[in-house]
Amino acid sequence: MEPEEFREQCAAKLLKLVEPTSRLHAFVGLAAPRGTPKEIVLKLNEAMRSAMADPAFKDHLVTMGMRPKPLTPEDYRAFLTREAARWKEYVKTAKIEPQ
């Protein structure tokens, strides 16, 4: 199976799981191991924000279809928590068993 065909089949299956008004999106984020000192997390966050502030880097991300949206560590954690809860409901609705 060609990669494009595989992606189309996966997308079709996922869209059957979600409500028509739901948004299906992908995201890219940076994570550190639990227990990483806060000052290190903040330093990594600042480095990412600095990179995303660079017009050339930002333009490169946009040409790849991304919409850069830097978040604070707290906002990123809240986003991940919301996404986990949302997908937990989809998994429950679809009766998908843990593997």
Write a concise keyword list for the protein shown above.
62% helix; 99 residues
Instruction: Report the mean per-residue pLDDT as an integer.
Output: 85
Straight-line N-to-C gap: 24 Å
- Residue fraction in strands: under 5%
Weakly predicted, low-confidence segments: none
Number of helices: 4
CA-based gyration radius: 17 Å
Number of strands: 0
- Any idea what the shape is? extended
Order of helices and strands: HHHH
Structural class: mainly alpha
Specify the biggest β-sheet.
Answer: none
Share of helix among residues?
55-70%
Structural description of this entry:
- This protein is mainly alpha-helical and 99 residues long.
- The chain has a domain at 39-99.
- The protein contains four helices and no strands.
- It has helices spanning 3-17, 38-53, 55-63, 73-93.
- The chain is extended, with a radius of gyration of 17 Å.
- 0% of the residues are buried.
- The model has no long low-confidence stretch (mean pLDDT 85).
